[in-house]
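Priority: low. Protein: Tubulin polymerization-promoting protein family member 3. Input follows.
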Amino acid sequence: MAENSHEDKLLTAFQKFAVHGDTKASGKELNGKNWAKLCKDCKIIDGKHVTGTDVDIIFTKVKQKTARVITYEEFQRALQELALKRFKGQSQEEALQSICKLVEGQGPANVGVTKAAKIAAVDRLTDPSRYTGSHKERFDESGRGKGREGREELVENTGYVGAYKNAGTFDIKKKTEK
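Result:
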């Protein structure tokens, strides 16, 4: 039974990484990019014994010739290959258990990594109350942008010249002449 729970945790980790970043993924196959991510996030790549290149080579070795993904069975073979490199000096069985412990129950790390920078300089640059010149016209008193009306010279198509004082009086004049 204990062996089965290890198997389940490993499968869960495989599925989490298999669907990472791909909305159409079924969770049954792992692509090369997510395989490399799994190895990095689960600390299989240590920079000494196992590098990113090793991970890529093993991926290519275990997958089908024309395939661009690996199945769960191929994933297990890849872990066996990596186990001996990562845990030198351990028997194959011990190394496999050690590498499985690294992966079990893990998921992709980096959800929500991008955070907006809150720096005083950025706040100053994005504070519309400090704008001068033509840019000042782009915002209302509350600091909200006015959209097009703040950026473009909107033309009134009335037929009158811009500064003409008697605009709109043509019809009135015509009536008084009769």
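The longest strand covers residues 30-31. Residues 2-19 form the longest helix (18 residues).
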